[in-house]
Write a structure and sequence with these properties.
The complex is a heterodimer of chains A (250) and B (247). By secondary structure, chain A is mainly α. In chain A, 75% of the residues lie in helices and 0% in strands. The longest helix of chain A has 30 residues, at 95-124. Chain A is globular. Chain B has eight helices and nine strands. The longest helix of chain B is centred in the last third of the chain and has 16 residues, at 180-195. The chains are: A mainly alpha (250), B alpha/beta (247). Chains A and B meet through helix 1 and helix 5 of A and helix 1 and helix 3 of B.
Chain lengths: 250, 247
């Protein structure tokens, strides 16, 4: 992949230009959308959980985390199928198409999280030092999304209704993650199953470093790292198996 | 030294009786136990070599396997058995302007297309002006591609392809764009490539072009090599074959 870095970069920049140059507010929209959604959820649920510590800020961080995942995976679905001439007419390692589809989302949400930092400072009135760790979490999360992208984009070539199915799956994951409610309302009996949702683990660790100022425990680093490695390995295996017939299926 | 070695390649396509493209159709198919498909051998036991600096033509009727063979050589399709070995830098032109993006400018597209063809930014910088001069499009450098006529964007693509300077070129009927003057320029450029010792594999129905370009030609029929050798003789064989079929 490293020897193709210029191609990856060119395709990433082209993708960013295509995404944003035709909307009046361009990049701003992708920032405003999670912020506004978080605002709506805050207005609805503040009576229920408004007293919980840092409810508003945690809602924002949770929303951004979820959006990074859902935007990244949804757009990756079409990374192969939407680029048919690059698959059927020329040879380039096809992982490049997925990577250059997920990278723009990474850049997008890198900026979104940076914008979040002053917001946290305003709402909580102090900023933990551990916020410096967020790029590391971001990188791990990116690998997780890239792995999921490899899996989804290769399956989508064969199963064209996967985008509808995936939409439902991401909605379900949203309600199964502690975005709009605190983690503390989950009964202890189902907690072990609840925490099998990777997004929950990522939300918890983002909140730890960005809001609460806790150093993430070794255990939680291993858990999110494990999710990322598992997604990448499974995604790559499926992708490599399926990509041999891509050009015939499209 | 041979630039291309094709060793015993076979390629089979599956033609399902019912094409299933959704999860639902797959589940239904699973329940009803419909897995049936027909097998179609697009290529059977193809072996040949192309020497460095040689131009090889591939001719044959529609559906004879020409394009499948070229796609396997271009690594777009995988063979079911056999192997292809390519020496040197290969560029495949199964279609011109692969990856062109209508919303971007000609300049941006040149950089993207070149990197798809395997060039580094530094290399593109050094041939950048030549590409535009050859395509005669210098004054449209910063115009978006969507405002180009189809002829203009093909000229731009072809000019980039020509300046990419690979050792081996796999070409599928694409070098027939532009007006007569531009075609002449391209033909000259191809002669120059041959003089420089580049290897060319050329798939075409245009027998005259094959005659001009290739010393050696392969005739394919139903996925097998009928004959291979001196271009004139192979073309005569092909024409005779068509004649028999028509009478």
């Amino acid at each position: 992949m490293w020897q193709h870095r210029e191609l990856i970069w060119n395709l990433t920049v082209a993708d960013l230009k295509n995404r944003y140059q035709n909307t009046a507010l361009g990049f701003l929209w992708s920032l405003l959308s999670p912020l506004l959604q978080a605002l709506v959820l805050y207005l609805v649920f503040r009576h229920l959980w408004g007293q919980t510590e840092n409810f508003a800020v945690n809602l924002l961080v949770g929303m951004m985390t979820y959006q990074f995942f859902s935007a990244g995976t949804s757009s990756s679905l079409g990374a192969i199928y939407g680029k048919s001439s690059l698959v059927t007419r020329v040879y380039i390692p096809r992982q490049i198409l997925v990577l250059s589809n997920v990278l723009p989302t990474l850049i997008n949400y890198l900026i979104a999280f940076v914008v979040l930092v002053p917001l946290i400072f305003v709402l909580v009135r102090h900023l933990p030092v551990t916020v410096l760790l967020f790029p590391l979490i971001h990188l791990i999360f990116f690998f997780f999304i890239y792995g999921a992208g490899l899996f989804l984009s290769s399956l989508f070539v064969y199963l064209r209704d996967l985008n509808q199915i995936w939409q439902v799956v991401t909605r379900v994951l949203f309600f199964c993650s502690p975005v709009m409610y605190p983690l503390s309302i989950i009964p202890a009996s189902i907690m072990p199953y609840y925490r099998l949702n990777p997004i929950t683990e990522f939300i918890v660790i983002y909140r730890d470093v960005m809001v609460a100022g806790n150093l993430p425990s070794l255990h939680s680093i291993v858990v999110v790292g494990g999710f990322a490695v598992a997604a990448y390995v499974v995604g790559s295996l499926v992708f490599n198996k399926l990509q041999r017939r891509f050009a015939e299926e499209m | 030294m041979s630039a291309i070695t094709v060793d015993n390649i076979s390629k089979k396509f599956r033609i399902p009786h019912e094409k299933k493209t959704t999860v639902l159709q797959n589940i239904v198919g699973l329940v009803k136990r419909q897995f049936s498909y027909e097998e179609f051998w697009a290529l059977k036991d193809i072996s040949f070599e192309v020497n460095k600096g040689e131009a090889l033509g591939i001719i044959g009727r529609n559906g004879s396997g020409k394009s499948t063979l070229l796609k396997i050589m271009a690594r777009v399709l995988y063979p079911d058995s056999g192997s292809v070995t390519m020496n040197g830098k290969v560029a495949s032109f199964l279609q011109l302007g692969v990856g062109f993006q209508q919303e971007l400018t000609a300049r941006e597209n040149i950089y993207i297309y070149s990197s798809i063809l395997g060039l580094k930014r530094r290399q593109v910088n050094s041939i950048y002006d030549e590409i535009f001069d050859f395509a005669e499009l210098k004054k449209f450098e910063h115009m978006k591609l969507k405002n180009f006529s189809s002829g203009m964007s093909m000229r731009l693509a072809l000019s980039t392809a020509i300046h990419a300077n690979p050792d081996t070129m796999l070409i599928d009927e694409v070098f027939a764009v532009g007006d007569e003057a531009f075609k002449k320029k391209c033909a000259d450029k191809m002669d120059q490539f041959k003089a420089e010792g580049k290897t060319i594999v050329f798939v075409s129905h245009a027998l005259n072009t094959v005659k001009e370009l290739c010393q050696r030609t392969m005739l394919l029929n139903e996925g097998q090599i009928v004959t291979m050798g001196d271009t004139e003789k192979v073309i005569d064989h092909y024409l005779a074959m068509l004649q028999i079929r028509n009478t």
